[in-house]
Amino acid sequence: MFDNGMSEWVVVLTVALLVLGPQRALAITRFAGVMLGKAKAALADVQAQVEKELPQEELKEIKENVVALRRSNVKRKVQEVLALEEKQA
């Protein structure tokens, strides 16, 4: 999510510990962890919904392509029959 390594987080937590003190730094760290967990859960839920709906949209697109092909084939067949009838007449 963030492009930070472990060493950057250690520096941030150390500075927070020095500035805020041990009590408040732990409470804020715990709160941040809970919020990060909720954000990850929400992101996973959205991703699952998108993955669930994506195949349906792909199937709909495939269905539309098949219907279009059928229509074009029917038009072509009708034109061929009409052309044959004109040649025979």
UniProtKB/TrEMBL annotation:
GO CC list: membrane
Annotated keywords: Membrane, Protein transport, Translocation, Transmembrane, Transmembrane helix, Transport
Record-linked Pfam families: TatA_B_E (PF02416)
UniProt xrefs under InterPro entries: TatA/B/E
Membrane topology: Single-pass membrane protein
Keyword Protein transport in record: yes
GO biological process annotation, one example: protein transport
Main location: membrane
Localization terms from the record: Membrane
Entry protein name: Sec-independent protein translocase protein TatB
Native organism: Halopseudomonas pelagia
